[in-house]
Amino acid sequence: MKLLMLGSGTSTGVPRIGNDWGECDPHEPRNRRTRVSIIIENQAGQRILIDTSTDLRAQLLANGIGKVDAVFWTHDHADHCHGIDDLRVMRYDRSNPLPGYASRKTCDNLRRRFDYIFEGQHGYPTLMSLKDIADARLVAGFSFDHVEMPHGPVTSTGFRLEADGKSIVYATDFSEVTPSMLKCFDRADILVVDCLRRRPHPTHAHLDMALDLARRAKVGRTVLTHMDKSMDYRSLCDEVPDHVTVGYDGLTMTA
């Protein structure tokens, strides 16, 4: 399997509006971070898009992506779903709506916020279908498992996708490592993991928590994502173990 990191930044991106780079070197291209989304592709070329970030159009254009086969959402926070309208063009050459999956609560919130996407309006067709992730186990050539993760006062869905004898986990926006997470992520080939900053945060994983999850889940490789302006790429590369990759927009990796 192949992963493509479309975006690796926190909700405000790096730099923040106002050209605020924080501790990130503005001359290092890998410090320029858009909001998080990721694509996972199997050997047959089928693609799962996880989250529709607010920067989705620019991300898809930058990486030459014209179609995906299904969309998963981790949760309904704006930086993870407000780029949904950019999927409209993927409906044009389809005979049926593009399939989407999320937790029941996230499905309810997405339907309420983006009713025109899932119901069609004013003569426009339904762009996407939306199903509870609990009702599926095989999508677009991938088998998968999922787990609800604490994200401060709410939850975010972590996904484990498997194809071609390999496994990739996507675990972003969590604030605690639970036994259910360790069970779901156990011995994955690649873990893409929330890593907002070095200091603890009430709703996100910090560096030590991200590395602790990777160690306890016994994963093969770890990729850090959802990083803020305090996480300079080169400084962080010098700090993390060899089996940990500091993620960046456009990163590709094969499991």
TrEMBL record:
The keyword Cell wall biogenesis/degradation belongs to this UniProt entry's keyword annotation: no
Residue ranges annotated for the Metallo-beta-lactamase domain, each copy included: 34-204
Coiled coil: none
Any one GO MF annotation of this record: phosphoribosyl 1,2-cyclic phosphate phosphodiesterase activity
InterPro entries: Metallo-B-lactamas, RibonucZ/Hydroxyglut_hydro
SMART domains in UniProt: Lactamase_B (SM00849)
The EC number(s) this enzyme carries: 3.1.4.55
SUPFAM superfamilies: Metallo-hydrolase/oxidoreductase
Source species, domain of life: Bacteria
Protein name listed in UniProt: MBL fold metallo-hydrolase
Organism annotation: Qipengyuania citrea
